[in-house]
Amino acid sequence: MDQEPLDTHTGIGIVxxxxxxxxAALAFAKKGYVVSLFDMRADPRTLDRSQKNLRSINLAxxxxxxxxxxxxxxEMASRVLEHIIPMKGRxxxxxxxxxxxxxxxxxxxxxxxxxxAYLNECLLQEVRQADxxxxxxxxxxxxxxxxxxxxxxxxxxxxxxKTFEFDYAIGADGAFSQFRYQMQRSMRMSFSQQFIDMQxxxxxxxxxxxxxxxADKVEIRDHIHSSGxxxxxxxxxxxxxxDPGHLHIWPRHDYMxxxxxxxxxxxxxxxxxxxxxxxxxxxxxxxxxxFWANFPDATKLMGEEHLRSAYHENPRGSLMQVDCFPYxxxxxxxIGDAAHAxxxxxxxxxxxxxxxxxxxxxxIQQCSGDIQxxxxxxxxxxxxxxxxxxxxxMDNYTEMSSKVVSPLYLMRxxxxxxxxxxxxxxxxxxxxxxxxxxxxxxxxxxxAISTERRQQRILRGVQTACFAGxxxxxxxxALEYWNRR
Amino acid sequence: MDQEPLDTHTGIGIVxxxxxxxxAALAFAKKGYVVSLFDMRADPRTLDRSQKNLRSINLAxxxxxxxxxxxxxxEMASRVLEHIIPMKGRxxxxxxxxxxxxxxxxxxxxxxxxxxAYLNECLLQEVRQADxxxxxxxxxxxxxxxxxxxxxxxxxxxxxxKTFEFDYAIGADGAFSQFRYQMQRSMRMSFSQQFIDMQxxxxxxxxxxxxxxxADKVEIRDHIHSSGxxxxxxxxxxxxxxDPGHLHIWPRHDYMxxxxxxxxxxxxxxxxxxxxxxxxxxxxxxxxxxFWANFPDATKLMGEEHLRSAYHENPRGSLMQVDCFPYxxxxxxxIGDAAHAxxxxxxxxxxxxxxxxxxxxxxIQQCSGDIQxxxxxxxxxxxxxxxxxxxxxMDNYTEMSSKVVSPLYLMRxxxxxxxxxxxxxxxxxxxxxxxxxxxxxxxxxxxAISTERRQQRILRGVQTACFAGxxxxxxxxALEYWNRR
Lengths: 485, 485
Prior knowledge:
Cofactor (chains A, B): FAD
Pfam families (chains A, B): FAD_binding_3
Number of helices of chain A: 16
Distance between the termini of chain A: 102 Å
Radius of gyration of chain A: 25 Å
Structural class of chain A: alpha/beta
Shape of chain A: globular
Number of strands of chain A: 20
Family (chains A, B): Belongs to the aromatic-ring hydroxylase family. KMO subfamily.
CATH architecture of the largest domain in chain A: 3-Layer(bba) Sandwich
Strand order of the largest sheet of chain A: 7-6-15-16-17-14-18
Largest sheet of chain A: 7 strands, mixed
CATH class of the largest domain in chain A: Alpha Beta
Oligomer: homodimer
Domain FAD-binding (chains A, B): 12-363
Helix content of chain A: 40-55%
Protein name (chains A, B): Kynurenine 3-monooxygenase
Largest interface: A-B, 14 and 14 residues
């Protein structure tokens, strides 16, 4: 039947040289496997900047991602994470230009901003040095033979088809995974993709044209150093127009603007709104007027010209959630967005994908190197955590866009902070949900949710007790009053 | 960019020459549109029987399907439906070989058994005569340009790629629709496919080897005639081993067997079970023993030899539900299983697909021939009905496999039958759900569900009233008793 040329490789074939695919390639290579990594895109080294797919919402690396990188190779992790910018909290911007900082961690823990394309290039660099065979311009056409030796067929630039044979195959080719689609043809995989009614439009806040005073520069540099990030931050090539130590949010309920710092002093900003909002603007004038009315401080920093060109030229992205199960079929598995694309509102998409790699490698070790067995175990054991984080990501839009300015939310946050920080002195173990998800790589996502549910029940108990106390006190005072009459 | 040969057709391009695709082609051709119909399979006329894809669970045509066929062309409908075998009810087989008939309709209405491959061939024959251009061996590769003139690219047998341009494009290429997959690339379509833990294995009950007595033959022939089916039924080429006027069911809760009659005196039978059941049989002996224990009468009719060969050779099918929304994008739309594959337990898959065609054509007429507008309106207005029937199909497994032998269910069925048949004499409008779905093409699926919900509320009210009455009566009698003491 198969008359295509067959290039027989043993070892591991990985499809998708994005963040998760690269880390998986590194992980297997470090363990001594022969690894081949394929991507449909061109080698980024052969492209100039304008040709690159600069997909963003800047990424926020947090503990799970860092632990996963380190689990593969400590030194590689240091090199890759050299240029992250720590953010210790959210900076909430109101309509009048007022700001309020809300710290993320109990003890100054930070999440870390990094440019997606830059991080990808760092990882590709590591992959090349790890002696992984990398094939760019290879577009996956079919995945077959998963129950014996997986055969991957690609079409190459010249229109030629090439077929490779591997011991095991891994799909890490993103939310619209062709690998997953091909796997589905030979197995019973339940699958759903759900678009949410929300677009994102990427915007840009440039660095300060020049340093206004030397003090500013030093202050910003100090912030970055004091956050304890490894690496060299002295080469700040620009100056930030806002505090780079925060993830900036302009929460406006139905829509919101966010901004994350870049190394060059700029911010990558993203405008999220329902499609009907952005589509209601008939001209760039209306768009700019909307920005002046809702995000005056940001509009000033971005400049009207930029907003006008972004309105006309920047692509509007859609947001999708992918869920499927199982993730494996015999000698193949999907990981990262291919298995569980989530909306970006918890900043965990990449962190979770990296964690997939760590958990998978640990599972292989537990299975004494029986990779097929490990694929099956990973699929079963990872399921609940992946469902949990996808749900958290979906729910967190409400938190970011609305709750962060609600008095009740702020009260709960203070309560969390207080109990989380000082509770252990009085024997109370309390962990804010955000801390568990972003700063505690040792707590699985599903356990974070169940712990949070328990804490919520306790809180409701406390509220009821407080209410009962006040009510009882009131009744007593009333009785006293009547007695005295 | 596009350097492929472009074969410019105007008119309607339809992908998938299955049941729904053929009917859609006929419907548009009758209205005077230029229609091209594509299928990846070979022309069935060029294949011998062993090469044909004889996918089955025999189909049951009911009112919606018949109405849709007639809405396209009354005479065509008569020709196509010539060889259906009416089934007036379910025949429930218990483990001891006992049988009980449960009629479907209030007034003897029937659903009608027909072989899928045969029906498809009839429709293809009609398509050819309707002067539709039919392209077999055309495998869809891409769907583009939906917002101006849809371009469909196919690969043909020789490996050549051909691109066609149409005014409008319709995907009717089944549950694993490539057309849908291609559409998804250029739009935000939410989508889910859900496998249920259930396999099906096709079995076969042969005709009687020869007529045992002439009386039997006449009785069977009479049954078919008295059901008022058009066409020639005198050429019964065989004899049935069971009553052909019923859909036979062996309900055993976790698993079940069904059988539908064929024109040649045989029955196509299907064994449904969770995967773990069929996979638990290590040998054909165990499989046959299971059949003797659970379906002794059917086993006798099938013969051990057939069961053994079916166990080893017949493919085991999986059952999947597909849901997506919206169904349209600019000048393209998906219909039938491509848009809403359902599990087979309500016998409505094909009927619903045919109804798609009727509703779509009516919507085009309402939109004064603006097809793009009609696609959008169809998608919106058809949504609730499609969700409703998919849910009913899923729920009906429990009814077929378990409830049909439950006393409560049978009581409810009698109540339904009585009120449905005689209620109108006392001003009560009552319609059993099965009647609304299968015999009332004028009631949309979603309305059938809402009517049934209302009826269930009334039933619960009646139950409560009965209970209160009995209780009150008991209390009165108790009081009387105490008074007398």
